Structure formats: C-alpha cells, structure tokens
Amino acid sequence: MEIGDRGITSLEEKQDVLADMTTMIALKQYHSLFVISSGGAGKSWVITKTLENQGQETCLINSHCTALQLFRLLYVNRDNDLIMYFDDCDGMYTSAVHLGLLRSALYGQPDRIVTYHSSQLPDDLPPSFQTLSRFIFCANQTPKKNPMFDAVLTRCLVYRLDISNAEVIEQFRVMTANGYPGVPEHVCSEIIDFIEQHGTERALSMRLLTPAIRIYTFCTDHGSDWRPVLLAQLQNLGRPTSGTKRLNGHAKDARILKEALALYPESIKDQQAHLCAETKKSRATFYRILARHRDQTEA
After folding, report:
1. Helix 96-106 crosses helix 67-76 at what angle (to 10 degrees)?
2. Domains along the chain?
3. 62: number of Cβ within 10 Å
C-alpha cells in the first residue's frame, strides 16, 4: 500500500523530518547533523537511504575509533566531497580527547582548524590543518551533564527521534498490510496484537518485527507454540523511556496474570509459576491476584 493511499504514519512524519535535515547536509546547506534516538528507531536506514538518493558518498565509521585515528580520518577527509558518517560510535562522546577534536572540526572563527600535539604523532600527519568536511553523527546514548559534549551539539543541527510503542505498532501494521514474505496478513495481525498486548512495559523496536515473524514461522513449522518464544524475546527488550506511562502495581499484576492465563489456559500450576517468575511474588500472592481477577470478571 502506497503512502498516498493510506496517509502518513506518525513515525513516517518524524522520519521525513530526519530525511530533510540529512538532505541539508548532502546539499551543503549546513555542515553537521547529530541524531539521537533509542536503537531500532530507523535513523540509520533513513540517513543511508536519503544519502543514496542524493548520490552522496560517505566515509563510514561505525565502531571503535581511537583519538589518533580520528585525527587521521579528519585529516584524510579534510577537503574531499565525502560526508563523515559516525554511526554507533557512542564511546567517543565520553572521551575528552575525541570531543576536543570534534569541537575543533565543527566550528572555527573563521576557519575550522584541528590540532593534535603529541610525541606519538606519525610523521605523515601534520600537527594542525583546516577542514571543510561535513559530518553526520548517530547515537543511541549520549552523556548527561558533560559540557564538552554539549559544546559539540551546539555546533550541529540536532534531531531527537523519539518514538513510542504506539508508533512502532502502527508502523508494523502498515508494513504488514499486505502480509509479509511467506506470512499472510491475518497472521501478521495476530503476531502484532500479541506484541502490543505483551510489550506494554518494554521499549519496542522496529527491529522486532522480522524476528517475531521468523519465530512464528519456525514454531508453526515444527508444531510448537510460538507465543512463549516470542514472549521471551519481548522480555529481553529494555524498559521504555520515562515519557512512557508506567502501569501501577495492580495493573501490572493483572496484565501478567492475563498473560499467564493465555499461555497456560489449562494449567493453574503453570499460571502460578509464570506469574511468580515474572513478578518475584509468592504463591499466596498469585492466588490473591487470581481471586481479584475473578471478582472483576464476574462483576
């Protein structure tokens, strides 16, 4: 289904903003962009796709990079047409040496001059140079109360791509409106309903859909129940950000009890074991929660 046929989702609106800001860097309307979001928000995909559409090549750095190697990369790419793209290099943003280099590379009056004075500086590198480079940074986590990092942010366009569980679920439904390879639409809906029901207290990720469908396919092909396997995957996800509404104690107990009843409808022993394992509460508490649930159901 094309966007024009269904309207744009909330997540797609946010991704469009990111695409516009990335295009600004590609078209040399600004020299640096810093994007922050939790993992699995789609930021790397949007940036990569946008740069490809613009025919823009990059120098990708996506893991460990020492300060001296960063200085070398800055020097090698000081006046070429590549965008220096730092993805998943979160460790750099807690290092004073890295941050000092980035501050110099991102701002200058009038020129951006980068310097590195060390007895270990190789002979093929000068101690200082001017850079004309453009930069895009992607980070899942950034340091708090760090003036040096804050100074780096002030030298960049900044976009925080925050997404809610509701936005992830909405996007899953759009992505599977016509089914998924090998899986019909009604099955996808069942899987997404399960994720929505049992992922309330987890930070859902756009990366979850494919493994969820593969879990379903594998388990059904082998004659086993896919729900406990997917539930285990959900339980491995992180907690949502503070902006996500938390359930109170009774609501949480009720949700986990419903989860246990759905997974083990014929076995009260397994229901009790599941709730106790999830809540760390006693067997007696399980029966109190069960009685409260029955009272509410019968009311």
Report:
1. 20
2. 3-160 (3.40.50.300), 165-298 (no CATH)
3. 12
Q: Which residues pair with 261 in a beta bridge?
A: none
3 pLDDT higher than 80:
no
Kindly report the pTM of this predicted structure. Answer: 0.74
CA proximity to 68, closest of 101, 111, 104: 101
Distances, alpha carbon 94 to alpha carbons 104, 146, 152, in Å:
16, 8, 12
pLDDT tens-digit series, residues 156-169: 999 999 888 999 99
- Cα separation, 229 vs 211, in Å, equals 11
φ and ψ of 35, to 5 deg? -115, 130
Top pLDDT among 38 and 245 is at 38
The secondary structure of 168-184 as a DSSP string is: HHHHHHHHTBTBBTTB-
Q: What is the mean pLDDT of residues 102-127?
A: 94
